[in-house]
Amino acid sequence: MIPEFGHFALILALAMALVQSAAGFARGRHAAAWIALAQPAARAQCLLVAIAFGALVHAFVQNDFSVLYVAQHSNSMLPTVYRVTAVWGGHEGSILLWVLILAGWTLAVSIFSQQQDDATVARVLGVMGLISCGFLLFTLLTSNPFARLLPAAADGQDLTPLLQDPGMVIHPPMLYMGYVGFVVAFAFAVAALIDGRLDASWARWSRPWTTVAWCFLTCGIALGSFWAYYELGWGGWWFWDPVENASLMPWLAGTALMHSLAVTEKRGAFRNWTALLAIVAFALSLLGTFLVRSGVLSSVHAFASDPKRGVFILAFLALVVGGSLALFAWRAPKVGRGAGFDPVSRESMLLANNLLLLVACAAVMLGTLYPLIIDALGLGKLSVGPPYFEAVFVPIMAPALFLMGVGPLARWRRAGLGDLARRLRWALGVSALSAVIAPLALGRWTPLIGFGLMLATWIASTCLVNLASRIRAHPAPGWRARFAAQSGSYYGMLVAHFGVAVFIVGATIVGGYAVERDVRMAPGDTLTLGAYVVRFDGVREQRGPNYVAARGTLDITRNGQPLTVLSPERRLYTASNTPMTETAIYRHFTRDLYVSLGEPLGPNAWSLRVYYKPFVGWIWGGCLLMALGGLLAVLDRRYRALRHTAAAPRPVPLPGDDSIALGLPAVKAARR
Amino acid sequence: MKARSRRSLAILAGLSALGLATALVLNAFRSNLVFFFSPSQIAAKEAPLERGFRLGGLVEEGSVRRSGQDLTVNFVVTDLAQKVPVVYTGLLPDLFREGKGVVAQGRLGHDGIFRADQVLAKHDENYMPPEAAEALEKARHGQMQGAAP
Fold this sequence. Notes:
By secondary structure, chain A is of the alpha+beta class. Chain A has 4 domains: 1-164, no CATH class; 202-334 and 342-412, no CATH class; 416-513 and 620-645 and 659-671, no CATH class; 515-615.
């Protein structure tokens, strides 16, 4: 009964989403009455979707195998935690999660936009309602998670073992929070385009939403990468798999959007560009959903599915992207140009970085979509190898990373090259020095490692230069007061940029100095990896709740001292008869020792992967810092002040304002 | 006038940078396309000898032979019409099994042996890599046409 209840709730949610959309676009005599309906409809829609999602969770927890989706993705032996996460272990549940998160963002917009006038909020909610309608229709027509299986299955087919992992518990929700979060920036942009009000206030309201979505997306991608690292058992952290690319593209566009919004808010420039980026970022999120959910990809994530779904999402994608781009083409020429700027200024550098991010995004898109297009045209099967992405991504991002160091120090409108060079001279010196010395200290010098470490040092040192000059220039007496006087969004920017530096260090060093050995070992065999000696002590059988495992024991010593014992497993999940490797990793701040068990070769010997991965943890640490920076920017105290003083006069961008906060509205100008 | 010339200079610089990026992208793109061939296509000499490609099909039953010393493994990939012997050194994916779909990336030697540097199998018991599925489909189609006249 409860699954039918969930299904019914979804249908009601669709009705509410229709009301919500209608309310946003109402005109004429009854417009005011419709506008008043927008927020209640949005909240009701969210509640109904939550009820539907709850019903599906209930079916999973109760092992209701009369529901087809539950029977396909769960099993009575599955631990309860994984029964809950199995909800998004397949196509139907993932889409329902998408819808739920969209409803959550809608609710958040309705709650946090109380200071804006009702008509604007209704318009934004209306745009979001249209997206909700599309996805609710998609769920109900092609991917109903509540479809019954009669007669009920005696037991379920089990959740794919790959997904029975703590990383998978949070990775998809995080990623979807980011993907779907860009809908808010999109809705704000479309609403502003419709009303012809692409102004600073639009940019100010869009910024925190974009930043929060970007933080979630950053965390989601990092989690996915981390999960692939320890779960897939190949020791890589990024494979340029189409599904990974599908999440990287909106991230690149979102990063560009976040920075462009800062310029639009502070200087009134780039208005059209920013609106276009908001559309592009969300379009790429939809494209990602299409790629992953339609089953067009030949990757580990592709779910076997029927073509109806692909056609539906593709049509929806064309409608949303085509519609919003047409709106843009119609409205954008009427938007003013905003303040001008010189070729050397913070604006120009941000614009250059925006372009580089989009070029990188386009390059990734080419490599991801080309095989699909060729295949769809019947011109044969091909794939684009990771070397393409590496060959393209690194040279495009390198100038962007260089400019990342200069931009925050440059003045708005007009900056002096000489002045910049003088302020950055020691950062440049330190970076050049680190390019030469650091690789030698680590072992071996190659141009790529030198270059990577130079960029990382450059970004980190320019952050310090920036902070030092800010602190020195501040009039407050005493250091503590000067540090406290800087805004949260300024610190957020520094932390996020510093995170990029940390990330580059990790990616460079693990790429340059990782040692990977695939070996055959019999009990008692040893393997030497630098200072480490790995001894294989054989394999024992072990039982888990829903699997049997061969558990290997490896004794690790470092410089003759016992360090740790690692126990990688090779599991056989009994319900689905699927083998899975569980890696064992010795984690350390500056290095990982990574072992995974292959397969038995003869009576005692096993094949094993033994990897030494220096600084690999810094890759995800850097991503966490980036997300933390975004969080700091959003928590800026001036934003809270703004919320509490709703009636405060609209802030005016100050020409000399030197902050490039990525978070919230600078009301500094208004306060002075 | 001065501001305008500076602006056009900046636009020019931007465009040339964009052109450079495009050239870079397209060049890297062309040299990194990995084509896919089925055993039947290899038998018909359609696959290149000097360039890497992907080979897909089924792992033939009873064809997997492991070396006693190291991680070298020999197996045969078939599309049920033609066969290609493959040699690979390294760990095989979890779902590599006889009779199941597989995709191998590597080079074809003059001796007709495919030297794989990567072997892919999918993480689902019933899932067939699309390339492998297509190879089988094509081969079956070809056989039927061959038998018809």
